[in-house]
Amino acid sequence: MPTRDEWVTFHKWSKEFGSDIVHLNVFGTHIVILNSAKAANELLDGRSAIYSDRPAMPGLTTLINMDWNFGLIEYGSRWRNWRKAFHTFFNPQAAEAFHPIEIEGTHRLLRNLLATPEDLVHHMRHMAGQVILAIAYGIDVAPFGDPNVEVAEKAVGAIIAGSLRGRIFDLFPFLVHMPWWFPGASFKREAQTKWAPHVDTALHAPYETVRRQMATGIAKPSVAASMISELNEKSSEEERYTSMAIPATMYIGAQDTTVSVLHSFFLAMVLYPEVQRKAQAEIDTVVGKDRLPDFGDRQSLPYVTAILEEAFRWHPVVPLAIPHRLTTDDVYGGWFLPAGTLVIGNSCGILHDEANVGPHPERFIPERYLPGGGATLTTADIAFGYGRRICPGRFMGRATDWIAIASVLAAFDISPALDENGREIIPEEIYQSGLAT
Hints:
Blueprint: H1 6-17, E1 21-26, E2 29-34, H2 37-45, H3 48-51, H4 58-61, H5 77-90, H6 92-95, H7 99-115, H8 120-137, H9 147-164, H10 167-171, H11 187-216, H12 223-229, H13 237-271, H14 273-286, H15 302-314, E3 324-325, E4 330-332, E5 335-337, E6 342-345, H16 347-350, H17 354-357, H18 394-411, E7 417-418, E8 424-425
Parallel strand pairs: 2-6
Antiparallel strand pairs: 1-2, 3-6, 4-5, 7-8
Helix pairs in contact: 7-8, 7-18, 8-9, 8-13, 9-11, 9-13, 11-13, 12-13, 13-14, 13-15, 13-18, 15-18
């Protein structure tokens, strides 16, 4: 098993052996890597009734207490109920109601970038936190050092730690029950003492804030407020837990994914300045220079939209989609796949296959998503997951990233930083391995 950039190795193996799936046996655990859109769509979408479960991921769910995250729970009645709740708030029509919040967050991002451009990463995280906290909890965030944003960042750090260092527990779940000093199990103590408290705070703190605000009549409309208002003295413990878990999953899920896409965007604008100039010319022609873009301009800015598509494709937020688990025996392409097999969609490999996206997939080329540009596969088909486990917040996420990208391009030129001698510092295109990049 490769230790980093796994998607590259898996895609290479697929080409070498002439198969769109790679079948591995890792210490008795069957793992199937899907390296083509055909295989991913046929199994994870076409046969979703038996491919929609999640494997046990104790490194995340047990050790850092992330068992309430909608994206990680097993397929069943709880998942279906939670999915229904998500759809109520995040279907395409409902997601349009969030546009004013996304615009407000973007405008604050612009003001912050103007004031202290050297704090780019902080400003991106603040914007993402501002938007999702307003949507999930109706909470206004402070311009700097907001505790709710810091909670989300620490919880995301816990997820990164759990997905990287907790991998051994996913392969050997029995280690969860071993003492922390057992070889390979030292992360257990760190997870429970350092990381789990941040996850618990993310689940409870903003939710309790909303409850207090509702008791005093000052709560703003939000997902949490809407769900709490439906509770009464007859509500079950499951219903109460659902009202807490749903907004918390939104809170954590949207924070890092939004920032990851914006990271890729800013990196691409530095490495491919000609792309930036084309986008700015389109904005100047369509929007002019006396106002900022808004969602009414979306259909008239195809190149800006193509930049967003390419940012999702170039470095997918989740390069290896969260694993699915096969619940019954199946057969595909001559392979026998036993029940319990872990099935992983190699999203990054699929989105870097010339057959799907045209030539030079390693380059940032938005034109591939314009008519005649060569891409035969949209990022919506791959980058947000598969089948019944596709990301339910994708419409809100795409809208947030689009308005941020369009507005930044309208307001600023993005160029490399300079060293002490006035020479440009060209950043390297290096992404960390893990559940999300």
